[in-house]
Amino acid sequence: MPGEVTLTFRTATRADVPAILGLLADDDVSRDRGFGVVPESVDAALWAAFEAIDADDRNELIVAVDGDEVIGTCQLTFIPGLSRGGAERMLIEAVRISSARRGQGLGGALIRWTVDRARERGCAMAQLTTDKRRTGAHRFYAALGFTASHEGFKLAL
After folding, report:
1. Tens digits of per-residue pLDDT, 78-119?
2. pLDDT: is 109 or 32 the higher one?
3. What is the 8-class DSSP label of residue 34?
4. With helix as H, strand as E and coil as C, how does the chain read?
């Protein structure tokens, strides 16, 4: 059926990296940070980062795919800890849906899939951070059951 979404989620491969970089650049906040252009070729540092994520069983780089098109991404990091009785927590980072595909429920599907992934793995919590300027994202995550429970701090090094 034309226009039908056949959304699947999977671990990213090397072939997905250029599309992921495009999704990361397709964002006003990213452009404000100076990452608004997809490099013509993936440089050694980006390949090294992908290889490190791919080799680490505590990290998963996920793509959301409609047919053959990568339309979304996120990175999941599983963090062991003592503060919750030794249970893992899952950190969700770099969530993006193609700007051309936003408003179709695809981001919600991606986040629900990540929460299911955390449950599969036995995590006690799923957590994420989002830039304070992303007020629409704040409403989006709240509608999915996330609560704004902490104030985050960062230090650029």
Report:
1. 999 998 889 999 999 999 999 999 999 999 999 999 999 999
2. 109
3. T
4. CCCCCCEEEEECCHHHHHHHHHHHHCCHHHHHCCCCCCCCCCCHHHHHHHHHHHHCCCEEEEEEEECCEEEEEEEEEEECCCCCCCCCEEEEEEEEECHHHCCCCHHHHHHHHHHHHHHHHCCCEEEECCCCCCHHHHHHHHHCCCCCCCCCCCCCC
3-state secondary structure of 27: coil
Q: Are strands 7-11 and 125-128 parallel, antiparallel or unpaired?
A: unpaired
Q: What is the pLDDT of residue 31?
A: 65
pLDDT the model gives residue 142? 95
Q: Given this model, what pLDDT does residue 3 score?
A: 61
Rounded Cα gap, residues 113 and 19, in angstroms? 20
| Residue whose entry in the numeric block shows the structure tokens 């980062």 | 49
Name the one residue in this structure whose structure tokens are 């299911």. 116
CA-CA distance, 68 to 118, in Å (whole number)?
26
Is the distance from CB of 110 to CB of 9 less than 8 angstroms? yes
- State the Cα–Cα distance between residues 51 and 37, nearest whole angstrom: 22
Instruction: Determine the pLDDT at residue 43.
Output: 85
> Is the Cβ–Cβ distance between 100 and 94 less than 8 Å?
no
